[in-house]
Amino acid sequence: MTDGEAARGSVTNGRREGILFLLIAGLTLIGFGVSLIVNVREIAYRIFDFYAPFMNAGRATRETFRYVGIGGVLVGVLWVAASFSIM
Questions:
Q1: DSSP label of 55
Q2: Residue 19: what pLDDT?
Q3: Within the chain, what is the greatest distance between any pair of CA atoms?
Q4: Which of 2, 13, 48, 77 lies at a C-alpha separation of 20 to 30 Å from 87?
């Protein structure tokens, strides 16, 4: 094996790891977003109740983090799609 072949192999392996990272991060974000939307174990309410004393919540309600979950799912889907398009 020449130095050039070894270098190309390491780039390919690094690229695969990057794709795998995008895929795992996207799936994790989708899972967390769905758990916020469905409000599993009232996680969205507990997150809001935790952060409300530290900030001026304004007109935000306890349902706000459920809408944040929709954004999380959308970003996660884009990350998963990006990982498949790179393959």
A1: S
A2: 84
A3: 64
A4: 2
Enumerate residues 6+ apart whose C-beta is below 8 A from 83.
Answer: 19, 20, 22, 23, 26
**How many CA atoms lie within 13 Å of 16's alpha carbon, on the beta-carbon side?**
5
Q: What is the DSSP letter of 63?
A: T
CB 19 within 8 A of CB 83: yes
Which is more confident, 67 or 2?
A: 67
DSSP 62: T
- Alpha-carbon Rg for the chain, nearest whole angstrom, is 19
| pLDDT score, position 11 | 45
Q: Supply the pLDDT for residue 17.
A: 80
Q: What is the mean pLDDT of residues 53-79?
A: 92
